[in-house]
Amino acid sequence: MHRAAPILLLSLCLLVPPEAVAEDDIPTRIHDWFAQLGEPKPPRKEELGARNTFTLNPLLALQYQQLGVEYERAFGRGFSLYLAPEFAFGRAESSWHLSLAGTLGVRLFVLGSAPSGLFFGPEFSASYQRARRNQVLRKAFGLGLGGNVGWTLVLFQRLTLSVGFSAQYRAIPDLESSEEGALRVEVVPIPRLAVGVAF
Questions:
Q1: Which of 2, 46, 98, 192 has its CA 20 to 30 A from that of 171?
Q2: Alpha-carbon dihedral 57, 60, 61, 67, rounded to 10 degrees
Q3: Helix (H, G, I), strand (E, B) or coil at 110
Q4: pLDDT at 21
Q5: Across the strands, what pairs with 55?
Q6: Per-residue confidence at 132, pLDDT binned at 50, 70, 90?
Q7: pLDDT of residue 44
Q8: Burial 69-94 (b: 16+ CB within 10 A, else e)
Q9: Which of 87, 9, 12, 82 shows the shortest CA–CA distance to 52?
Q10: Is the predicted pLDDT of residue 31 greater than 90, yes or no?
Q11: Closest Cα partner for 162 from 188, 194, 196?
C-alpha cells in the first residue's frame, strides 16, 4: 500500500495539464526577468509642492497709498508669471482721485523651485488715473517697464513670505498739468515685503 502511493501521485502529476503548462512558462518568465534587468526604471513623479501664491504687499500701501495684491503661478521649476493689480481712491470735499494700475511680470528662479527661492525678472505695468477738481474731469493713461529681484519662502506648503525690490521706468499720468493727457516720466522704486498664502 505504501509502495503504491508514490506511483499514484506520479500518475496524477502527469495527468494534470495545468502543471505542464506552468513548467513551460518557467523559461519564458526567466527570459522576461533577465530582459527587464537592462531596462531603465520609469522616472519617479516629481513632487513640486504649491504652485500658486496670493500675497499682499503693505509697503506699497505705506509708500504710494495703494492697496497692492499679487497672484503668482509657477510653471515648472524655474519660472513663474505674476499679476499685481493696484488701486487707490481719495476724496476731499468736491474733488476726488481714482488710480488703477497693474503689473505683469516674469520671475526666473536661480535657486529653489518656483514659486520659492531666489528670483529676478522683467515686468511691465500700465496705469489709468481719473480725477475731478473744480468741476473739471481729467483722465490719462501711463505705461512702465522695469525689473525685479528678491527671495520668496513657502513655509509648510501654505504660508508665503517674500522680500525684494523692483524699479520701473514709468510714464505716469500728470493730472496737475493744464494739458490733456499729460505724462511725467520717472523711475519708481517699489520695495517688496509680501505675506500671503500658497496653494
A1: 192
A2: -60
A3: strand
A4: 46
A5: 70, 196
A6: confident
A7: 64
A8: bbebebeeebebebebebebeeeeee
A9: 82
A10: no
A11: 194
